[in-house]
Each structure stands twice: as C-alpha cells, then as structure tokens.
C-alpha cells in the first residue's frame, strides 16, 4: 500500500511538472505575440476602409507634409518603416475578391471620377505578374478606369493562391481578363516577351478600341492620374514611347551568341546562359537597338507587328538570345515605315528620356538622381517615402520598384495623391 501511494505521488508530481511547463510555454508565446503585434504594422491599401475610419497607421500619415519634405512627417514615415510591416496575404485577396459587389464598394471602384475626354481615349494594359497579389490589386486599382481594358498574365509557376487571386479579380470586372495563353516565365528568357505578346494579341481582339497599350509588372506603380496620362499621350500624336539605343560591345554579347536555358544556383532557378556558338545576323537586315522591357505602344504599331512577317522572323531569331524583350521592341520601332516609328538616324532614347519607367540604379545615384531612401534590390532602388515629391515631379509616367514591406507609406501616399489629382482635373474640366 505504501509503495502504491509513493508511485501515485510521483505520478502526480510529474503531471504537475508537465502542466507547469505547458503553462510557461503558453505565457511565453502570449508575451511574444503581444510584443510582435506591438512592434508590427498592418498596412491596408488606401481606401480599403472607405466609409469607416482608417486604421491608426494611416491616420499618422500626412502625405501632403511628406510631399513638402516636412522633416517631422518624414521622421514619422521612417518610424513606421522600422516596424515589421504586415501586408495582405494572397489568400486575403482571394477572399476579398470572392464577393465582387462588396469588393467593388469597399475599394471605391464605383466612385472613380472620369471625364468625357478620357472616355474617348481608352487605354489598354498588359500586366505580367507572378507574386504578391496585394501589390497587383493595388496597382490595378490605381490604374483602373471602367472604359479601359486590362489583360493579366500570371506565371504558370505562380502559387495556387496567387492564381486564384488573379482569377477572382478578373471576374469582378467586365474589362479585366486573364490572358488566353499563359507562359511559364523564366528571367531574361523569350517567355517573358511572349507573355506580353500573348496579352497584346488578346487586347487587339477585344471590343475596346484602345489608343495605346502599356505594360507593367508587379512592382510598378503609376505616377500620373489617368486624366494626366491621357493628356500626355495625346501629345505623342501616334508616336510610340520606349527606350531605343545603340548597344555597347558588352550588350552585343546578348544577341551575338546563342544562349541556353540552364539551372542556376540562385534565386531565378533558370537563366539563359551564353554558349560558344555565334548567331547568324538578324533577319531582314534589322539593325539592333536595345532598351528595356517596358513600352507604351500605339494600337497601329501593335497591329502592324502582329501582322508583320519581319517581326515574326525577328521573334523566332530572338528565341535563343539573352533578355530579348530588351531588344525586340527597341529594334522594331526603328524599322522604316512602322507606325509611330523612330528613324534609325535619330539619337538614342535613354531611360531618362523615355517616360515609360523611372528606375534608380545604385551606381548612378548622386550623378543623375538623388540617393535612394528605401533599399536596393539587384542595384535597383526600392523607393522610400522621402522620394514621393521627386517621383511625382520628375516627369515620368510610371516607376519601378515599389514594395510595401520596404516602405508602406510611399505607396499609400501615391494612391492618395493620384486620387486627389484625378478628382481635381475632372472637376476642373466639368466647370
């Protein structure tokens, strides 16, 4: 009997120790969560709480003061940046866009101001994206107009939740659709160019008679309201807007030798790798020019390229080159007789001259533009809030790169400023 009581006592003591250990673990977890929440910041897109009070983080953001480079406002923005930024997960966008009626009201799509001039000058967009559904959603909201047309091309390798988010977003609008043909996009590969071409083909077949098409990726953001953009595009009078420059000897290597897609040991997984096999000269005597993947092209030019045997042969020839999207458009726009073309003899059009995309390269900061106030990713600046005024005043129409996890304040302020400008110009025209 004594032995049995001793055994029960030991068993009770062990149970007590296990319970005490579990209690300590739970308390530590609770303290950790409290500290994490206290030092983190949940950022919703500007306007997502329409009709209700904005969250505390948004209340502390004075975008007008940041635009004026007020040191106190900039300091508050930096303080917000020091917190752990929590953005909407892909699953949240899937859920948000699953109820289209609620989503459209919540994000203020039904209240977008628009002028009669804009309605007569519809635009098309090719959105080639692969991750961060919350950022794609904010970009789409910033460029959306009910009379424009939007093609979304998502990467076949994208996560299921990202794909579901894009599909749900496209179902909420009659003028937003997913490309009929999707690519498994590889960095610097022909598949990146084909993704845009797939969207362009679909856009040409749409009922919307758009004037210009603009391509964007998931880390781009507009710097002009739709009203301002339409006004500036009209000044082109059918000309195209893109980079087109004569290549350096180093850049010539990209299309002078055949490249093979191979597995690599860093983030891209696969890359076109240069071989020792030289390529034949470009077909039809095409003179090579280089630029970037970004373009703003007239409808006439896109239709011409889609029907041109020269363009088709050039696309085939470009298949084993490095980053063909950076020479395909830049070279075709120099061909004699193409709609809105640039004469071969004309000077180079660099990235600072073409208004398609404002990009800060780390090795040019200080010489061509002020230093990056955000962070750098592969030598490219991910912008910070202190660059709000510079971005809006520089003169370009779109910029890259933006990431709310680097600086949530800047994107919020861009959303707010673009909405203000759109409303201002539409109201002014209606008077």
UniProtKB/TrEMBL annotation:
**According to its UniProt record, in which pathway does this protein act?**
Protein modification; protein glycosylation
Kindly state which keywords UniProt assigns to this record, in alphabetical order.
Glycoprotein, Glycosyltransferase, Membrane, Signal-anchor, Transferase, Transmembrane, Transmembrane helix
Residue ranges crossing the lipid bilayer per the database entry: 12-32
Q: Can you cite an annotated GO cellular component?
A: Golgi membrane
Entry-linked InterPro entries:
Glyco_trans_14
Query: What Pfam families is this protein classified in?
Result: Branch (PF02485)
This protein's source sits in the domain of life called Eukaryota
Q: What compartments host this protein?
A: Golgi apparatus membrane
Q: What is this protein called?
A: Beta-1,3-galactosyl-O-glycosyl-glycoprotein beta-1,6-N-acetylglucosaminyltransferase 4
């Amino acid at each position: 009997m004594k032995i049995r009581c001793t055994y029960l006592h030991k068993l009770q003591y062990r149970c007590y120790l296990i319970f005490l250990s579990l209690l300590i673990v739970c308390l530590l977890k609770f303290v950790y969560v409290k500290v994490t929440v206290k030092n983190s910041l949940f950022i919703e897109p500007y306007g997502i709480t329409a009709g209700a009070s904005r969250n505390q983080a948004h209340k502390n953001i004075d975008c007008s003061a940041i635009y004026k480079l007020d040191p106190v406002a900039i300091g508050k923005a930096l303080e917000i940046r020091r917190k752990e930024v929590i953005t909407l997960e892909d699953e949240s966008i899937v859920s948000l866009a699953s109820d289209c009626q609620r989503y459209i009201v919540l994000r203020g799509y039904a209240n977008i101001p628009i002028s009669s001039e804009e309605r007569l000058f519809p635009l098309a967009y090719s959105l080639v994206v692969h991750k961060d559904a919350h950022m794609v959603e904010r970009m789409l909201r910033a460029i959306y107009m009910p009379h424009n047309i939007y093609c979304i091309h998502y990467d076949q390798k994208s996560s299921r939740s990202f794909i579901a988010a894009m599909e749900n977003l496209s179902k909420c609008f009659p003028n937003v659709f997913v490309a009929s043909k999707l690519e498994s996009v590889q960095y610097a590969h022909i598949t990146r160019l084909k993704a845009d071409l797939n969207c362009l083909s679909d856009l040409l077949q749409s009922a919307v008679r758009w004037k210009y098409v603009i391509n964007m990726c998931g880390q781009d953001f507009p710097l002009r309201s739709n009203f301002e953009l339409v006004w500036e595009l009209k000044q082109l009078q059918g000309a195209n807007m893109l980079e087109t420059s004569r290549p350096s000897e180093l850049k010539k290597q990209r299309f002078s030798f055949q490249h093979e897609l191979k597995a690599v040991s860093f983030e891209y997984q696969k890359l076109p790798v240069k071989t020792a096999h030289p390529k034949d000269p470009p077909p039809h005597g095409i003179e090579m020019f280089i630029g970037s993947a970004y373009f703003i092209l007239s409808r006439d030019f896109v239709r011409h390229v889609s029907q041109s045997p020269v363009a088709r042969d050039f696309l085939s020839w470009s298949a084993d080159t490095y980053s063909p999207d950076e020479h395909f458009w830049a070279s075709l726009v120099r061909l004699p007789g193409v709609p809105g073309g640039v004469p071969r003899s004309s000077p180079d059009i660099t990235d600072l001259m073409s208004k398609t995309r404002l990009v800060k390269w780390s090795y040019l900061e200080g010489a061509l533009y002020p230093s990056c106030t955000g962070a750098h990713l592969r030598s490219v600046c991910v912008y910070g809030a202190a660059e709000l005024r510079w971005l809006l005043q520089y003169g370009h129409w779109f910029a890259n790169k933006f990431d709310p996890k680097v600086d949530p304040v800047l994107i919020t302020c861009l959303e707010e400023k673009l909405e203000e400008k759109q409303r201002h110009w539409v109201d002014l025209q209606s008077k």
